[in-house]
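Subject: Sanity check before I submit

Could someone independently write out the structure tokens for this chain? I want to compare against mine line by line before I put it in a report. The sequence has 358 residues.
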Amino acid sequence: MREGKWIECYEDGSIKEINNYSGDKRNGSFTEIQKLEVGVLKTVGNYIDDSKSGEVITSYVHSEGEFIFERATYRKSNIVGDKINYSEDGKVIAITSYNEDNDITEAKEFYEDGTLKKLSRSLPDDDENNLPDFEITLYYPNGNFKMKYIDKDLTYYYNISSLKDMDGNDLDYGTLKNGSGTIKSYTDEGELRSVMTLKNMVPQGLFTEFGLAVFDGVEYPYKTSGQINNGGKEGSFTSTIDKDGKTLTLQTEVYYQNIALEQKTYNLMGTLKQEFTIDKSTGEKVDITYYPSGAIKTKLEYKYPSTFLNVLVSKGPNGADLDYGTVKDGTGTYKDYDMEGKLEATYTLKDGKVVAKE
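---
Independent answer below. Compare away.
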């Protein structure tokens, strides 16, 4: 039976949890530490008979200091009233409200200046799946209305009732009805950004994305098209740009379960610049970079997603082999050259990761 203060640590000896026990139940103050890639989340509060009770505060701690990330009041481990999230400078960025059954009744998100960005309000359930319905309203940074739609479980689009640009003009939002159809999204300037197909509230079918690609300081409209399957990219995707009245291929990709297994990137002359392939059975990734002439510059071996292992080819513009360093199986030095064959940097690697650069 546990009594008094108990401390649990990570394998490196750092503290994971501090709890106080009475009668083998957590009673009294507690501290929980969750490690992140950068910094940690530290949660402090109180337990009564193994249930969180009272105010619980979560702070983000990193090398620059500590700030409150989240604040909420609990009763029997359920949030009572509002959960408030803060930015690093102490501004409120989100407020989520709960009822006595711990269901979300309303959620607000804010821009940095405090302007309301998103408002979600719960609606009575009206389907056999008992997924909570929410009416979502989005706003532009200037406070103007942007979009209103019905969502399921704060996750899926269901129906869109209105979509406007920043000046209040109606925009074509697609054919979505009862969770199926197309959805069109726009930039804040009213430019079409994407067209996505949903089936039963899940992204599935044709997907097209629009934007601008910059080459030598000049912007060109681009379009990426492919298929979404069960919410993720699947199969072939092609990105094209319009230049001088012609449609040029900028990039081709082949996806499997939302992971690009193949990718080829071209310049404006149609010459292959770079490509990679990933063996999905082994995780081996081979990345090839080309000179403008079409000759291979480097051929590098990785372990998916980004563990650098070996140099297979390193050549100068004239086709001569270059001294690429000592790297082997992820450890050693790697010398990187520019398109003129001049040394740009020397990297020191350990276990496939860069530990130094000179």
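---
OP: Matches mine. For the report I'm noting this point. Residues 164 and 171 are 5 Å apart (CA to CA).
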